[in-house]
Amino acid sequence: xxxxxxxxxxxxxxxxxxxxxxxxxxxxxxxxxxxxxxxxxxxxxxxxxxxxxxxxxxxxxxxxxxxxxxxxxxxxxxxxxxxxxxxxxxxxxxxxxxxxxxxxxxxxxxxxxxxxxxxxxxxxxxxxxxxxxxxxxxxxxxxxxxxxxxxxxxxxxxxxxxxxxxxxxxxxxxxxxxxxxxxxxxxxxxxxxxxxxxxxxxxxxxxxxxxxxxxxxxxxxxxxxxxxxxxxxxxxxxxxxxxxxxxxxxxxxxxxxxxxxxxxxxxxxxxxxxxxxxxxxxxxxxxxxxxxxxxxxxxxxxxxxxxxxxxxxxxxxxxxxxxxxxxxxxxxxxxxxxxxxxxxxxxxxxxxxxxxxxxxxxxxxxxxxxxxxxxxxxxxxxxxxxxxxxxxxxxxxxxxxxxxxxxxxxxxxxxxxxxxxxxxxxxxxxxxxxxxxxxxxxxxxxxxxxxxxxxxxxxxxxxxxxxxxxxxxxxxxxxxxxxxxxxxxxxxxxxxxxxxxxxxxxxxxxxxxxxxxxxxxxxxxxxxxxxxxxxxxxxxxxxxxxxxxxxxxxxxxxxxxxxxxxxxxxxxxxxxxxxxxxxxxxxxxxxxxxxxxxxxxxxxxxxxxxxxxxxxxxxxxxxxxxxxxxxxxxxxxxxxxxxxxxxxxxxxxxxxxxxxxxxxxxxxxxxxxxxxxxxxxxxxxxxxxxxxxxxxxxxxxxxxxxxxxxxxxxx
Length: 715
What we know:
Blueprint: H1 6-20, H2 56-63, E1 70-74, H3 86-89, E2 96-102, E3 105-110, E4 125-128, E5 131-132, E6 152-156, E7 172-176, E8 187-194, E9 198-208, E10 212-223, E11 232-246, E12 249-263, H4 270-275, E13 284-286, E14 296-299, E15 308-324, E16 327-343, E17 350-370, E18 373-396, E19 399-425, E20 428-447, E21 452-470, E22 473-484, H5 488-492, E23 505-518, E24 521-533, E25 536-543, E26 546-553, E27 556-570, H6 572-576, E28 580-595, E29 612-622, E30 626-635, E31 652-662, E32 667-674, E33 682-685, E34 699-701, E35 706-714
Parallel strand pairs: 4-7
Antiparallel strand pairs: 1-6, 2-3, 4-5, 6-7, 8-9, 8-35, 9-10, 10-11, 11-12, 12-15, 13-14, 15-16, 16-17, 17-18, 18-19, 19-20, 20-21, 21-22, 22-23, 23-24, 24-27, 25-26, 27-28, 28-29, 29-30, 30-31, 31-32, 32-35, 33-34
């Protein structure tokens, strides 16, 4: 971006930051947040839930019994924007950092989880309707879920995800989908388009009878991308079919089909990423080694070698729920097939995988009378196993050359957990939990690789206190143990390196916070500190073909931070008289992640995530159906790129505008402009152990100015 354009942008940024510091004007999309615009959007319809898919109100009531940081996002809060991924949908959730490495592909980090893991993300368990989507290998492809198919999203930070067996640093994200009984419309359609030749269409329908209901949706996306060689073509289909056996028993089958294909533009040197962000990575050359000598091309680059990532998924799952008096029994199973064709550098080659996974779960909840007070309890278990035929081929200008490696990769997990909520009187509840996890990662080499097997387990206790100050405010405290085994790709660097027997990551976390609402103000605030042993970190090392990414254990690290969400409704009485509502939303996340007396890096900061992130939105809604919003994403200073703390990225400010109009009860038009000032910034990079060379190709530029518009129809 030219320097002459930065002055007004800086002024807007500073003004927004100063206003955010005023205690009466500050919030976010945590659980404590008020339901947004409910009083203004009179056309909104609240639909009761079902046994297999609770309503948002019922889900919120359950989450409010957790003594820890929780995020809760209803789909209506992000459908006004062009949200391609789950990361886009979580923009206003405190403690969540999401950036883009490729179209529809986010790096999502919660409390420093998976600081810079590659395409397969670690540290967060992803579920849909309470059924794990995260692979048995421990890693997640976030593009397996289309945000347009969600009813609401639950974010369980850290061990607060015990309900789903989650104990990793980042916790769990559960996507709850509409059903034939809970969808807000019987028919809906959506068409969007905009910058970079982007077109997306979505359609769906819902139908319910006395015992039977069905919901189905499909999304198609095409975009050329903001960079050369960064296009995407994606087709996603999802359906669920429910059958109510009786008033107290319901079963539901979920079907998913995905074909996600996107080109990879590669990484750039730091100055190239800032000066020419639309360019693709170029060839890596060396020499001449003497005057007049030849120039040796070491890697042709992403365009010549057609770097891409193509993922196909077929999935079927079942969830059955039965109410037996004061006890609720839930159980089910799933099967998934994933096919991956991933062309990358000459060093990594073309990654070719075919994986079959099966899993099953049982969860029982109930209530006992403890004198005059209810004691709630939960017992559950789930397990999954997968077999992956993993191959790598030589990448010869985008075509498969010789077979270089092949291995059979098996992974399995077993989880068992229990929890009791003990009322102590005076609005105080003690929560006691215990979880056991056992994981197996097995790599059986067939060709040119090193075999290996890793097993790990841990018994993780949890203790929490939840105080209901009154009907509208809570204070919470918890201490817990965390556990995260390495993923298969961590052990093999995606097939690029021999098997490395890594240790499981273990953590002890203390958390304190509060959430609630007072008149026009709502808040959700948490402060935490984690002591981590053997944290799984991603490193980059210079090689013959650029940087090679691999995973290793650190000895001891500390993660601590503040997650603050504050919302305020400005001038509520005066504006309501005019049929208006003005809401100011603020999210502030402070990250302090560092080594703890490491023998190599001392007490250096960990690379990968910025120390501060501030997101702001000022939005005006009208009773007549129109709205106008301005949002700001501010990273005051960029993160370190290397663990030696010698190279960082510049901070940035991104201003966006959203607007829309509910033309009729059935038709809505909407649009958005992203990065209004066309700020040049670095969105992502490969972390490195030592100082990054001046021309080190590890940086991914962010998207420039872009505009999108669309229309949705529901009836």
